[in-house]
């Protein structure tokens, strides 16, 4: 029986070593660890996307966190940004539980798939443009394989730019490049892009992003996915 193409893609992501700086950093973090996680075995590898293969909604982040996804092996799992995201996905009906601590914690996504523009944890959470472009073909392939996806929820300006580049590489070019802004919605080919501030501590601690704001943008995304 032929292997599932999405599973094959995830396996290729797991073995990727194309960006020397990112490989060195993710493995150094996994070796040195954070004091609070000294007893845990870090993932220390690229982090593939996960979720419902029949999803209409694709949530796109920047990259795994050094002590979040790079530790747990699942994007947004085990960090403060994920605390906000999964609670919001649960309130919107996309997740079966409001928290995600590790890969085997029982989290299931419905009608939603989560990925990142860059699959390895970058130093200072800042990938270079070259690293972004090297990793982007994985997102392009996900868009091709996730046949039902019609809405891309972009968490932050980096994800917004990455999504636009991935769509362009897939042959979908907007008539006029849409500018990132929280709540901005733009049609690109058969897809709808919805923008949100990233649920980083920098944004949530300062009130730039509130739970209500994240809930509203998820309802925008849900409404757009139903229409399409």
Short description:
With 228 residues, this protein is an alpha/beta fold. It contains 8 helices and 6 strands, in the order ααββααβαβαββαα. It has a 6-stranded mixed β-sheet with strand order 1-3-2-4-6-5, with helices on both faces.
Describe it:
This protein is of the alpha/beta class and 228 residues long. It has one domain: Uracil-DNA glycosylase-like domain (Uracil-DNA Glycosylase, subunit E), CATH 3.40.470.10. The chain contains 8 helices and 6 strands; from the N terminus they run ααββααβαβαββαα. It has helices at residues 5-14, 20-32, 69-72, 80-91, 129-145, 157-169, 201-204, 211-227; strands at 50-51, 57-61, 112-116, 151-155, 185-188, 191-196. It has a 6-stranded mixed beta sheet, sandwiched between helices. Helix 1 runs antiparallel to helix 5 and helix 4 crosses helix 8. The radius of gyration is 16 Å and the shape is globular. The model has no long low-confidence stretch (mean pLDDT 96).
Helix content: 25-40%
Q: Biggest sheet, open or closed, and with what strands and sense? A: 6 strands, mixed
Query: What is the C-level CATH assignment?
Result: Alpha Beta
Q: How many whole angstroms does the radius of gyration measure? A: 16 Å
* Secondary-structure-derived class: alpha/beta
> What is the CATH architecture annotation?
3-Layer(aba) Sandwich
Unreliable stretches covering 5 or more consecutive residues: none
User: Care to count the β-strands?
Assistant: 6
Tally the helices: what do you get? 8
